[in-house]
Amino acid sequence: MPSLLFFIFFIIIGTMAWGCVLAAPWVPTLSAQRKLLVENLVIDDASTIYDLGCGSGSILFEFADRYPRARCIGYDVALLPLFLGYLVKFRHPVRYKNVSLRFGNFFTKHFSDADVVVAFLMQKAYPKFIATLKRELKPEAVVAIEAWPFPNVEPVQTIRGDRLVPWYIYHRSDI
Ligand SMILES: C[S@@+](CC[C@H](N)C(=O)[O-])C[C@H]1O[C@@H](n2cnc3c(N)ncnc32)[C@H](O)[C@@H]1O
After folding, report:
1. How many angstroms separate the CA atoms of 65 and 61, rounded?
2. pLDDT digits (tens, 9 = 90+) for 137-151
3. Which residue's alpha carbon is nearest to atom 8 within ligand 1?
4. What is the arithmetic mean of pLDDT over 5-11?
């Protein structure tokens, strides 16, 4: 039994450390910060939205509440936040039927169907992240980045809120 607990603990900590090494630790976006984005980003109501490094999927649940016709897809490598997201989906299977939370390293995934990509990552991951966006996204896709802007690119929109960090909005074609 102790070895099973140790194994579970190792998996939880190990996958969270993996996310940290790849692009960012799990730091959930505040509720007010999520609403700031969802209420100010103008998108088609049937958009396909990806959160790359989705944590527990809270941004996707926010989008799903506002846009019930959207497809909301998240990738994360950390099992604990994903598990918490699955609990939310499990409790609201109909309300969140359009939310899909997936285990996986988004650097190796395909998301060329994305209309909108959201991410909250460390700046050190940006060069690889930008290369991944260029590889995958159609030119008109919208990218929303939390807290730190991409270097040397002017955002098409900056969404600011009281005592919140900005959201920087880009078109893939400008990156
Ligand atoms: C700062 S958190 C943001 C979580 C969520 N997007 C939010 O805003 O609440 C970053 C997340 O990205 C995940 N992550 C980092 N690199 C990743 C990668 N290459 N593939 C999948 N997930 C990754 C981490 O595990 C972590 O949960």
Report:
1. 6
2. 999 999 999 999 999
3. 29
4. 88
